[in-house]
TrEMBL record:
Its main location: other. This is Diphosphomevalonate decarboxylase. GO terms for cellular component: peroxisome. It catalyses: (R)-5-diphosphomevalonate + ATP = isopentenyl diphosphate + ADP + phosphate + CO2. Keywords: ATP-binding, Isoprene biosynthesis, Kinase, Lipid biosynthesis, Lipid metabolism, Lyase, Nucleotide-binding, Peroxisome, Steroid biosynthesis, Steroid metabolism, Sterol biosynthesis, Sterol metabolism, Transferase. One of its GO terms (biological process) is sterol biosynthetic process. Its EC number is 4.1.1.33. The keyword Nucleotide-binding applies. Residues 14-187 form the Diphosphomevalonate decarboxylase-like N-terminal domain.
Amino acid sequence: MAEKWVLMVTAQTPTNIAVIKYWGKRDENLILPINDSISVTLDPQHLCTTTSVAVSPTFTHDRMWLNGKEISLSGGRYQNCLRELRARASDVEDEEKGIKITKKDWEKLHLHIASYNNFPTAAGLASSAAGFACLVFSLAKLMNVKEDHSKLSAIARQGSGSACRSLYGGFVKWIMGKEENGSDSIAVQLADEKHWDDLVIIIAVVSSRQKETSSTSGMRETVETSMLIEHRAKEVVPRRIIQMEKAIKDLDFPSFARLTCSDSNQFHAVCLDTSPPIFYMNDTSHRIISCVEKWNRFEGTPQVAYTFDAGPNAVLIARNRKAAALLLQRLLFYFPPQSDTDLNSYVIGDKSILQDAG
Ligand code: ADP
Ligand code: DP6
Ligand code: CO
């Protein structure tokens, strides 16, 4: 091997927003959930992670920078992903640069990883999903890992549960699985990105501040202390998963909206039922819910669904472009950006085209 080379790969991965939420693990190390979940993957042009990974014989240890700041890779999640990928690395040859890396070399070579999220990190817009999906995808490319999306998705799951759904576009289901080794806890695509392209997604960034309770520790505390979580995971979610799959297949917006809003509200209810209680939404989030609920009731049939992940930011899904335009008008009227208490910015898009609303 020539000694001064650097080999680099860059990849981009979108985030995904759950409409039936994952909250709670049965295995912390393998990241196995206590219920199935369903999400929509957003267009990669917006709300995405870009990760560059490099290898060189001059690197002395594995290092990672997130949004320009060095972070530690010592956590189990990063180590689990790196170990799984190194075990599957294959020979890489770049004749032009005179580089030849054998399968065995990957055990000793070190990596440098630089990742950027073009949206708030750790603020409830699923940065861990886009982040770990992108980490695994870019490293798999660099290391010539010959595995399909399903296997890469299972590796990304060990970085962050929600990341397993970001390897697919469109509507995606993460099946919780039964096996102790996690072999059947996998993501599957329910419908591709062309399905239901009337839907328009508007993200209202209420706060880009980092949340106080990470999703990982929040869900651990919920599982340890909430009495409602078992009812949710065992009784409510299994029924909702069946209904949601049908609503997506039939393009049934009223059912889709009812299920999405109820599931978001129940997720935040189990957060409140946690001891000490976890508050992810704030007053502005609550006002957005009221605004949408009132409007949907006034119209007689839902025009918009809302969902909030583990943070105060609203993900609003309008049934079509007309409803999206009306929604944006309302939001701008009630929540003018940059006023004291209100929203910072809006991002509009759908599953195929996204534009910055400024
Ligand atoms: P979010 O709601 O944004 O997903 P989480 O609490 O689930 O918040 O996860 C945030 C954590 O995910 C960050 O502290 C970091 O450890 C990890 N993360 C975020 N972005 C990336 C990225 N691009 N690459 C790797 N890890 C990331
Ligand atoms: C509310 O996947 O971020 O966004 O697996 O511990 O990394 P870890 O948690 P994470 O949890 C996501 C929770 C959620 C709902 C969802 O995405 O399904
Ligand atoms: Co997350």
